[in-house]
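Support case: adenosine-5'-diphosphate complex. Customer-provided input:
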Amino acid sequence: MLALIWGLHILLLNNSYEQMKIREVDEIASTLHSSYIRNDEHLTETIQELSITNDLYVLMESGGSLLLFNPEQESVVPVYRYQSQIPKLREALQAAQGKASVHFKFTTSFEKYNTLAYGRMLSAVPHQEVYLYIFSPLYPVESTVNILKTQLFTVTIVTLILAFAMAGFFSTRIARPIKSMTATARRMGKGDYNVKFEGGGYSEINNLALSLNTAAYELGMADVRQKDLVANVSHDLKTPLTMIRSYAEMIRDLSGDIPEKRNAHLQVIIDETMRMSQLVGDMTSISAMNTKKIVLEKESFDICAVAASILASYEVLQEQEGYNFVFNHPKECIVYADKKRIEQVISNLTGNAIKYCGEDKTVIVNIKRAGQYCLVEVTDYGPGIKADDLPHIWDRYYKTSTNYVRPTSGSGLGLSIVKELLTLHRVNYGVDSKVGKGSTFWFELDVARKQLPSRQKTQHTQKDAPSGQPESTSSSDK
Ligand code: ADP
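Agent response - structure generated as follows:
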């Protein structure tokens, strides 16, 4: 900007001053020309006024005689100084052919500065030509330029000092917190997630620090989770692998030829592999949730039909091990959710109820319509959960220390999967449990606004009951 100002003011000032003067004289000549054409009776006064206010010297030549219009200036600028230029102007005008005006600069021996000579033809009638001549002194701009130079020099110095000071101030203000954050980020890169990014002064850096602190916290948590995962998985895999190996050895060395014993030992191996595949399945779900790969595919479906089919898959337990499944539900309850994920939720909760129902062996599934929601409850009358444990049971790999007899062992991931899926659905869920009395796990689902397509309705197999009214059935009824 400074260079531009210097260039415009100092280098081009003279040039632009001259250009400006030529434009000004040209405009005045045009005004006089139109007054002359109009035969304006005030032409003389206009010329005098314009020439005085603009410091011009105006002459008119008509039929070979010269008219001087500003006699006041005669004393200041004697006419003969310029008279020698008149023939040149006239010739130039005659040679210009059609060009409205001509101009050039000249210097007289009386003045040190240039004068602008301007000529214009007012009437081109042959032998009655009328010419307008204007002379305007081009005063030297050097003194003005010198004043400007001094002023500009001061302005330049002050501006540069201010600019450097401000640039220094702002860059330090911006750079210092960024430098410290870079150092912190390096520490974080080396695995230290307990770092704290310090902001500094202004909101963008503070926001960045906040985001980086959140990222550091998340990375720290992910690191802890990853370590937990490795520890838990290796621990969980060790037991079944040991069992499988020991029982396989037993079959090879002892029971291979005794069918009953061999079958019993093979059953242990089968159970343990099933446990391992459940663990791997749970881990796959958790890993998908970790990487946020789960996208809900919501649809309208009958939650009662879904729960009924899950309970039906446990019929074998009812027949062989004396479990009692009670299912209370309305005729239908159409919800809007991701069917597969909700199946997984009900399956995990029912599986837990079966695992932890103890000697009572009763599992109750209630489905109720409550306004806009459909409430699903899974109840058992097992040993319940201690109040201290309640907040933690949703955490990954959390298992209460008490060991109960269970048909299958858990991975400690089931409830955390339930929590993740229900959180993704943005619905309410929870547990009510009392030690010695049992537990009720519950969650709500949004009731679908649209009606279920007829194809899905026909799949519904429950007994008729008025819609919205709970109906009690035990699975043995079906
Ligand atoms: P697990 O595979 O060990 O069952 P979960 O995440 O499903 O893992 O459950 C976490 C813990 O919560 C269980 O280890 C158990 O102690 C407790 N829990 C879950 N459901 C019940 C229930 N219905 N009754 C009593 N305790 C339960």
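The domain at 298-477 is CATH 3.30.565.10 (Heat Shock Protein 90).

Case will auto-close in a few days if no follow-up is received.
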